[in-house]
Amino acid sequence: MKHCVELSSICKSFNKIKVINDISLEIPEGKIIGFIGPNGSGKSTLINIICGLISIDGGSGSCMGFDISLEQAKIKSSIGYMTQNFTLWESLTVIENLKFIGTIRGVSDVDNKVELLMIRLGLDRFKNTLARHLSGGWKQKLSLACAIVHSPKMLFLDEPTASVDPLSRKEFWNLIYELSAQGMTILIVTHAIDEIEKCDRLFYMNKGDLLFAGSLSQLLQSHSLTTILVKGESFDEFFTEMLRVKKIQIVHRDKWLSVTGYLNIEELKIKYPDLVIEIITTPLESVLYNLSCH
């Protein structure tokens, strides 16, 4: 598998506070890559390093064949960048925004390219609409169009659907799938469970450390949790007992709970005969919470 990003022992500090701790990783080409973890874990900083936007203190790496320390300008020209908040010109129309960004990016035949891109993303019916008058979902599509107007090899998305409705999110992800299928590498920072599940590969970070790298199935198999579904009148008594003898990681409103280590289900059923207790697949949110505790 060809890798478009290779990092070795990357370190970065701000004001003597280390935010990236000796991270090494490889990113396969043409995949959707999810960077996940708590706020302040270093996700965006690491991606900014990959995209040539921030210098490093130590280590080495390459992005699309360019050195991240020596060839940052070449990296920047080969990526698309879309932030969570709308940062385009609200006093310009859709087509004006796209032509302006396309011209800055040095797109040849920019008029034709913009027309085709608007049709592809369904923006053509709003071409003469001021950006300020677009809904949240259409603003995100405009932001995406501006991020890919120069046909980048890599696209970075920072929580792109955090403030849009479910239908707009679905349509947006259909576009992401299409871009990935065409060979574009997508780097996405997200906290949404359903979006994490859509990624081909995941990198989990916490406090500047890379704690996991792999597929969703590998992540779901990596934990040491047992998750049980519990139904019955004496749930509160059962829960109190679990608090005493086990480290409970998460409790859900439907009365399933994830605990660290092994549970003897048969003994629990004998002790609490009025309860229905069964082992279920540990949900992704429990696995992520478990990682954040390390």
Structural account:
This is ABC transporter ATP-binding protein. GO terms for molecular function: ATP binding. It holds the Pfam family ABC_tran. Belongs to the ABC transporter superfamily. Drug exporter-2 (TC 3.A.1.117) family. Keywords: ATP-binding, Nucleotide-binding. The chain is α/β, with parallel strands linked by helices. It has 2 domains: 218 residues, P-loop containing nucleotide triphosphate hydrolases (Rossmann fold); 70 residues, Alpha-Beta Plaits. The chain has 11 helices and 14 strands. The strands form 3 sheets. The chain has a 6-stranded mixed β-sheet, with helices on both faces. The chain has a 4-stranded antiparallel β-sheet with strand order 2-1-4-5. Strands 12-13-11-14 form a 4-stranded antiparallel β-sheet, sandwiched between helices. α6 links the parallel β7 and β8. It is globular. The model has no long low-confidence stretch (mean pLDDT 88).
